[in-house]
Structure formats: structure tokens, C-alpha cells
UniProtKB/TrEMBL annotation:
Stated name of the protein: Uroporphyrinogen decarboxylase (URO-D) domain-containing protein
PANTHER family: METHYLCOBAMIDE:COM METHYLTRANSFERASE MTBA
GO annotation terms (biological process): porphyrin-containing compound biosynthetic process
A single GO molecular function term of this UniProt record: uroporphyrinogen decarboxylase activity
Amino acid sequence: MRAALACKQPPSAVPVWELEFQAWDNVSGRHLVLGREFAALSSAEKEKTMHANAEIIISVCRRLHFAALTMPGCYWETAPGVPAYYWLPDGDREKQIAILKRLCESEGILTVVNRSSLVQMPGSADNYEEFCYMLMDRPEEMDAHAGRLLESAIETAKRLADAGHEAVLTASDIADNRGLFFSPAQMDRWFFPHLEKWASALKKLGLFSILHTDGNISAIVEKLAASPLDAVQALDPVAGMDIAEVKQKTQGRLCLCGNIESGLLMTGVPAAIYEKTRATLAACKAGGGYVLGASNACYPATPPENYAALLAAWQEHGQY
């Protein structure tokens, strides 16, 4: 994983990593306790559950050959009042991460921590109208917002480096399937300068920087590759992202992660998943700088046999 993030060829195989794996229950046959269910437990129950959670997660990582693991994140909503899947309450989250970190070290699994670091388009639970008014009518407020995000992100990165983590992920959506949400001028004011500072700060701390963004980002892949950013995750084919084309444009300058459609993994047939994975590896494997995984989260309903098809293609076509 470290070699791939550094745009070098790994010694044995293309690494496998998921932005956010959610099919723990399906694959393990056990139940991972997260979110509000976890928050309702007593202190003693939480302590016991955190160790059980870690056992489930590490066993699945081992079984699925994960080279890296994204840690549980903060509370956020996929829709108003609807919490995301992979979160734990403040305080408990840090304890769970510490347990997982120790186990990952013994397994040789790189740890990735997701912390919002950059300006992004409003999510499904945010107020689009208010956000857009701020962009157009109160740009100085956006300046302050972007500055606060960056300052907090760098301070967090220092703590993560001290704790022994190796990579920080910012899930900062800047596009949808039609293209960039922000105008070129807005990108140059609120995104690229802060990306440069964030990725540079992480590099000085010895951390890898990973940007996740949905949507079609074809217009900016050259600028991303020219920045200090180590990797970009998603490259969603549903949004029209041609990973072979992106690989040709960014070879040796930007690690590419994902591109196996999340919906295909959840609802497709194994033969189609195998073929998509094989083709992606054929386009991206040479020279390193590619990490195999879904284009977004690997959802809870993903059938184990579908993920097994991805791994079968990886075992046959992802080795160096």
C-alpha cells in the first residue's frame, strides 16, 4: 500500500483497500455494533463491544486481503435525520481506533483516518440554498470557513502522526456526475490553495494524503497530479471517469484508488464484477500507483460472492 501511494510498483500485488467497507456483517456472519446502537450501550458493554468489533474487522481484513483499513468516522447524515453507517460517538471512536491501530500494526495493515479537511459541496443533509448564497454573496465567509477547515485539519494531522497513523483521507466532494460543482475561479480561491497547504503539511509529517470526491473530475486531474496530493479515490465510472485515460495523464504523479462501481458490487453478477476488475487491473496495474477497490463505499448489502469475484480477478490479474 505504501509503495502504491508513493506511485511506485508494490513488490507483490496491487493493494486492496476500501474507502469505507460496510459489509462486515455479510462477510463475517457476525454483527458489527456502530452508531446509535453502540451509543445506547453501558460503559462496560461498550468496552466489550469495541474488542468484539475489532476482532470482526481484522478477521474480515485478513480474509479479504486488505492492505489498509479506514477507521470509523464521526457522525454525519446521509439524509436529514438519517445517520451514516460507519460512525461512533466522540470519545468511544478514539478508543475503538486505538484498539484497531494496535491490531493493524501486527497484521501489517496501513491505517487510514477520515477527517474533513477541505471545502466541499453541500451534502444531502445540508442547506444547498444557503451554501450557494454564501458562495456568491458572502465570499469572505467562505474564506473564513475554508481557513478554519484547513487549520483544524493540520492540527488533527499532527495528532494522527503522533499516534502512528500513516494516511489521512479527506472526503471532500467537489463534483457530481455532470462535472465540478464549483467554478474555476471558486476552485482557485477555496480549493486548490488549501489542498496544496494540506497535502504539503501532511507530507512534512510523514503522512500520505488521500482525496475522495464523487463525480466527474476529468477537468482537474492534471492539477491534482501537479499538486502534493498523494492519491485520489473514487474515479466513478458512473460519473464518466475513464480510469485508463486518467492513468495515462497522471502516471507516476498521482495514485489512483477505486473505480469498481459500488452498485455493480452490490447488485451485479460475479462474472461482470470479475471482468470489470480484470479490465481495470489491465489498465492500471503497470508501474504501480493503483489501489483496487470500490468507487465509493462497499455497502452493507454487498453479497460475499460478489466481493469474492473481485478478489478472484485480483488474484489472477493483480499480481506483479
